Amino acid sequence: MASPPPFLLLLLLLLALFSPLNPRSRAAKLPFHPEDILPLLPRQLSWPLLNALRRPVDLLPTFVGAASASNGSLEWKGACFYESTAWMEFHNKTGSEFGGGTLHIKVSKAHSWTCMDIYVFATPYRVTWDYYFLSREHTFEFKEWEGKAEFEYVKSRGVSIFLMQAGMLGTLQALWDVFPLFSNNWWGEKSNIGFLKKHMGATFEQRPQPWVTNISIDDIHTGDFLAISKIRGRWGGFETLEKWVSGAYAGHTAVCLKDSEGKLWVGESGHDNEQGEDIIAVLPWDEWWEFELNKDDSNPHIALLPLHPDMRAKFNETAAWEYALSMNGKPYGYHNMLFSWIDTIDANYPPPLDAHVVASVMTVWNQIQPAYAANILNEALNKRLGTEGLDLPELLVETETRGSSFAELLTIPEQDDWVYSDGKSASCVAFVLEIYKAAGLFDPISSSIQVTEFTIKDAYSLRFFENNSSRLPEWCNDGDGVELPFCQIRGRYRMELPGYNTVDPYPHMNEMCPSLPPKYSRPSDC
Ligand SMILES: *[C@@H]1O[C@H](CO)[C@@H](O)[C@H](O)[C@H]1NC(C)=O
Ligand SMILES: *[C@@H]1O[C@H](CO)[C@@H](O)[C@H](O)[C@H]1NC(C)=O
Ligand SMILES: *[C@@H]1O[C@H](CO)[C@@H](O)[C@H](O)[C@H]1NC(C)=O
Ligand SMILES: *[C@@H]1O[C@H](CO)[C@@H](O)[C@H](O)[C@H]1NC(C)=O
Ligand SMILES: *[C@@H]1O[C@H](CO)[C@@H](O)[C@H](O)[C@H]1NC(C)=O
Ligand SMILES: *[C@@H]1O[C@H](CO)[C@@H](O)[C@H](O)[C@H]1NC(C)=O
């Protein structure tokens, strides 16, 4: 959209600014509702204005229903178009195995000639959006379903439709390049690479072959860290966003463990089990490596970060194994994933994100996968407020009542000893660092370290790793002329871990750190 001329902008701004004083009567005299013009303003104005005009709970996306092919059409009252209906039609225009679909949306009875309705459409496999300004039938194309699972889901449960606040238009436009990240194809991979280059300054230089290292497991030891970076599909998109908001150049982690017979194992939180759940698992190296080489469709890039010999000497294997096995089979730590990143009220959100956008995403997620992630986040938020069983809107109201804000609520540090309804929680990196903590690597200050506050970047920045390149295994970075301080063992592009192996642990480390792109600079004592 072209920017409106400045005087018009000023006029609109004034109108919008005055509207909260007396919104209804003023609106009655004008040919349009002042809030209708919000989408015309640049995002930097529209979003703060909307925030000022509305209570946080009113900014949440509203679930209007699911459009399906079998149940007739879905009807609801939009914010602009008072009569809105939607239905789904399956087609096979591309001649692919599962075909695609067209979402029909018919809108009419607009309450003013300047208003528009913005919608987000979601399945568990994609999220996308569109906006409508004209009274007529519109269509939205799903060219091809991602696969059988999405096809079956939409057949039985439809596409979920959420009505957004009109002032979110700019925010959604600014997030435009986020939506393709989740596609599981070459285009999705290119989107992820493009996004990380543009927003983080990542380089993605191609390495010479071999892209898989012929490793010898005799050279891998207990406590060696695995930094993984996935760049395709659902996990790829998810990791790209996690990297962008946290400043980490890897999106997943695991740890090597040797047992008393010398057999090598991998401890991983976020392992896909056969039921498609993400769990904590301790599994034989061969099984893990075989999965990463042949079955992981996210094009994983993997680096082995060997522990420093002094750390290895300090490492209590008995205690590490005890902790790892006590967590084996537990669910992945969604509870604490979000909170490791958000430490500050405004210095952790790269624009256009803010606490309200996070709340919006959680609302959509809650609706789509209720048994899964967002419920779990709600539990974490309840813990922070000392409440029980409140859902997200109720949590927002409760926070406001207490004179606090959702942004502030998100900054309250996670405590490593919090126990959730499904047990103790550990995200991928929290699990690895809990093992380090159990093994004594944070001694003597381990009681003042909350590992759930560490991002992946915080983990690989710890000065725990090998710093003498002549002690790295012989096969390390085999065939690559560029010498890395760690061993990349899989991947077409060279991995980079800025800040690797530089920070000594200190009490209350990482509990108040900003993280803003593109530099993600970090005060030394946060
Ligand atoms: C779409 O067409 C292709 C080729 O004609 C066919 O193999 C596939 O089964 C069709 N898919 C559906 C969902 O009808
Ligand atoms: C269709 O209607 C039935 C019965 O009203 C309901 O149980 C089902 O969830 C609906 N399906 C969709 C996709 O809305
Ligand atoms: C891998 O290395 C081992 C010796 O370390 C060697 O015997 C084997 O042939 C190598 N495999 C490949 C595919 O190069
Ligand atoms: C290692 O951990 C085990 C189990 O927690 C403990 O019994 C043992 O004393 C520890 N060893 C050392 C050297 O600290
Ligand atoms: C690095 O390791 C090699 C081999 O163990 C050793 O000879 C050398 O002194 C070490 N360098 C430093 C700076 O510690
Ligand atoms: C590696 O770290 C140790 C202390 O942890 C230090 O004494 C040594 O000089 C470092 N070596 C190199 C090559 O930087």
Task: Describe the model.
This protein has helices spanning 6-18, 23-29, 43-53, 148-157, 169-174, 186-200, 233-246, 285-295, 309-314, 317-327, 334-341, 355-368, 373-385, 392-401, 406-411, 428-438, 456-461; strands at 62-67, 74-76, 81-91, 100-110, 117-123, 126-132, 136-142, 159-164, 225-229, 252-258, 264-272, 278-284, 301-305, 419-420, 423-424, 487-490. It has 4 domains: 6-51, no CATH class; 58-171, Sandwich (Immunoglobulin-like); 186-333 and 460-490, no CATH class; 355-412, no CATH class. Mean pLDDT is 84; it is low at 1-28. The chain is α+β, with helices and mostly antiparallel strands and 526 residues long. It starts with 5 loop residues before the first helix and ends in a 36-residue tail after the last strand. Helix 6 (186-200) runs parallel beside helix 7 and helix 12 (355-368) packs across helix 13. The strands form 4 sheets. The protein has a 6-stranded antiparallel β-sheet with strand order 12-11-10-9-13-16. Bound molecules: 2-acetamido-2-deoxy-beta-D-glucopyranose (6 copies). One 2-acetamido-2-deoxy-beta-D-glucopyranose is lined by residues 66, 68, 71, 157-158. One 2-acetamido-2-deoxy-beta-D-glucopyranose binds next to loops. Residues 1-27 form the signal peptide. Keywords: Signal.
